[in-house]
Design a protein that fits this description.
12% strand; eight-stranded parallel barrel; 47% helix; DapA-like
């Protein structure tokens, strides 16, 4: 049974987009995934996203994705919302992944804008609607034009929000003006998908975060959120500014790379990366240690 949710916070408030741990030989590490999931929930996450970008979804098989969902739900599904990435640039394949995630016990779906194909807005509308029609699970859209090549327009959000199972959006557009309009007109629950903009997005109506840096600073993210919700803007700003080196350091290169490096040095499950992602160079690792130390995280 998933934790209780409300229409305002259908997937909780603080979610980490979890890496997928692998064994030394590159195989899926389900024990490690369960350990990491438990650690993240203990730290204060009330939701986890698996099989997303940070979970190396482009290089995990459909079978691995289903196994990972099942393992994480088994480990923390009674304490946290487990949201499964199911979006690809092939609608038919996305429907298969959505149904497999539902069968594996996921509490919700994350559906990214189809990448590479650059579909028009009507194509986005039909794609997301098809995913929402495929299961009984609530859906979080994922708007990230820097990776997908196309944005979800505000008018499209308004249309999609009419679907009873499309309930949220993960915003990695980096445009506070467009976010403001979309929050105001769509009624979707809005989640920051860009850690540097966590606090600014709260100020225009976001309800929480889907974070990468949550792997290492979940308690601070929750403190920031709670300060904002209680009206202590100065405290929220102070925490945001303290975390700036962490936000910067974790994204100097691809976020999976830095996250797995940080987790390994914190003694948490991570494992190697799958190509085309590669390990940090010694110089990059020193920079990451320096950045995180300035934000209070010592590797």
């Amino acid at each position: 049974m998933a934790p209780t949710s409300t229409p305002q916070t259908p997937f909780g408030r603080v979610l980490t987009a979890m890496v997928t741990p692998f064994t030394a030989d590159g195989a899926l590490d389900l024990d490690g995934a369960q350990q990491l999931a438990a650690h993240l929930v203990d730290a204060g996450n009330d939701g986890l996203v698996v099989n997303g970008t940070t979970g190396e979804s482009p290089t995990t098989t459909d079978a691995e994705k289903a196994q990972l969902v099942k393992a994480v739900v088994e480990a923390v599904g009674d304490r946290a919302h487990v949201v499964a990435g199911a979006g690809t640039n092939d609608t038919a394949h996305s429907l298969e992944l959505a149904r497999a995630a539902e069968k594996a016990g996921a509490h919700g779906l994350l559906a990214v804008t189809p990448y590479y194909s650059k579909p028009p807005q009507e194509g986005l509308y039909q794609h997301f609607t098809a995913i929402a029609d495929a299961t009984d699970l609530p859906v979080m859209l994922y708007d990230i034009p820097g990776r997908s090549g196309v944005p979800i327009n505000t008018e499209t959000f308004v249309r999609l929000a009419e679907h009873p199972r499309i309930v949220a959006n993960k915003d990695a557009k980096g445009d506070l003006g467009r976010a403001s309009w979309a929050v105001a007109t769509s009624g979707l629950a809005w989640y920051s998908g860009d850690d540097m903009l966590n606090l600014p997005l709260l100020s225009v109506g976001a309800v929480g975060f889907v974070s990468v840096v949550g792997h290492v600073v979940t308690p601070e993210l929750r403190a920031l959120l709670e300060a904002h919700l209680s009206g202590d803007v100065a405290k929220a700003t102070e925490i945001h500014q303290k975390l700036l080196p962490v936000f910067t350091g974790m994204f100097r290169t691809q976020g999976v790379i830095t996250t797995k490096a940080a987790l390994a040095r914190l003694g948490l499950p991570s494992g190697p990366l799958r190509l085309p992602l590669v390990e940090l160079s010694p110089e990059e690792l020193e920079q990451l240690k320096h950045d995180l130390a300035h934000g209070g995280v010592h590797l």
